[in-house]
User: Fold this.
Amino acid sequence: METPLAARSLRVVLVQIRGMVEAERHESWCIRQCTGLRQEQLYTWNVLERPEIRWHQLRDADAILIGGSGDHSVTQDYPFMPWLEALAQEAVAHHKPLFGICWGHHLLARALGGRVVTDPQHEEIGTYRIGLTQAGSEDALFDGLPDQFDANLVHHDCVAELPAGFQELATTTGCRYQAMRLAGQPVYSTQFHGEMTPEQLRARLLMYRGYYLESEEQTEEVVDGLRPTSEANGLLRRFLELYT
Assistant:
């Protein structure tokens, strides 16, 4: 029987890009809820407050997570971007377990040689059906999952080209690269939010009211269409179980 993550002496770092305190705390709470990590096991670093994030400060972590944002785009240049790109490159060079979520998915693509675009025509907000590719169905992270499962998405940007050496693991009809992995390394990212249940996504959408959805009617329509996402909600815990 596997030892629960909360019973282990883990130190996981969550890199955040959050200008709203409520969203910053909510993201950390969602990740603890889906992984079972204790509060003291999850260390947070918000690059909007401390942009100069260096590899030597995080290299002793058991894993690094790069979270979402809400109101920042990887297609733009911010003061923290060179530091964060360098951190991702160093983590890969040292084979550190690394997982990007939504904005973190985009950051890994940009930092490692891929391409990200802002594409409002293919934005996805709500619960969508994710399909595994052949590589995804054979990957240990998705072991035991069906070829299709539901997950929550909130994004304007998409990965348009994978970095060299990355495998396409999952897709949707609107946004092709829903999950990717650097072949042979514990480096993954997902466009979808595996850390959020439908109830948690509803709360997050209300925090960013007006940024993703233009009206209360649109917000209500999306919220009414949310579906259970239990299969996606186990992925981040499984990543930590596999690679830490």
Notes: The chain has a mean pLDDT of 95. The first strand starts at residue 12 and ends at 16. The helical segments are 21-35, 55-58, 81-93, 103-111, 134-137, 198-207, 216-224, 235-243. The chain has one domain: 5-243.
